[in-house]
Description:
The protein is α+β, with helices and mostly antiparallel strands. It folds into 2 domains: about 20-45 and about 55-145, no CATH class; about 150-270, L,D-transpeptidase catalytic domain-like, CATH 2.40.440.10. Helices cover about 15% and strands about 35% of the residues. The protein contains 3 helices and 18 strands. It has helices spanning about 15-40, 45-50, 255-265, and strands at about 70-75, 80, 90-95, 105-115, 120-125, 135-140, 140-145, 150-155, 160-165, 165-175, 175, 185-190, 195, 205-215, 225-230, 245, 250, 270. The strands form 5 sheets. Strands 6-5-4-1-7 form a 5-stranded antiparallel sheet. Strands 10-9-8-18-12 form a 5-stranded mixed sheet, with no helix packed on it. Strand 4 and strand 5 form a beta hairpin. The longest helix has 26 residues, at about 15-40.
Amino acid sequence: MRVSPPPCSPAAWNPSARAVSRARGRRARALRRAGLALLAALALPAAANAVAAAPASAPSAAFRLPAGESWVASVIAPTQARAAPDIHARWLMEVAPTTAWNTPQTLLVLRRARGPEGSQWLLVRLDVRPNGRSAWIYADDTLISVDPWRIEVSRAQRRLRVYLHGSLQRAFRVVVGKPSTPTPGGLFAIDAELLQADPHDFLGAWVMPLTAHSEVLGSFDGGDGQVALHGRGGESLEDPLGSARSHGCVRLANESIGWIALHVPVGTPVQIT
């Protein structure tokens, strides 16, 4: 009799030392490239500086990007997440420079605003329940860079597509959640890229946790039902690509997720429809 495989559980996502080192190296390179992007993103036009009555949430033209590109923020110091772009707004949580897997924290930026005291704030996607939650953090506690990548997952087609500057680069067949434990829909981001010690285990070669959580499994197998992109190995190979048999995670062939890990950085938006 077949034993049901475990659902995605952060408790089982053990990054190798190489994965942590690789993530930190990628972050260092991104931060070196981020200087000009940071200045461009946070610089307000001179005219805007003169208009004291401008609303705090007014976007600046310097912050807009071509379609298919996103801003991401690498957290470089512990920062306070608040309900509005104001130091006096309700405190929500502290955001650390590292994730639960001890990898660099890079967040998808949804919006930028100038607070009443003149500071720059970023609205970022958080890796907390409920899905889609966001909060405002100080821009000064981050370094901003442009991410030209985007991932889209179609649950109906059971396909994952990878875009660069809005142009399709790769399309992969995937396994999505079964009807009783569906893959949640919405706009998420890659939270980490964790190289696994044994690519032949259930999770395959890579696990990429998303800022997405199962809407059915509040907790399971030592974790909180967080959703991830991951490879295939062991018993997970019994569920064919193009099927709906997972507990919410999106499974890819090891070669496919390896390609994503090589090209697509942490913080990249993942739209699941």
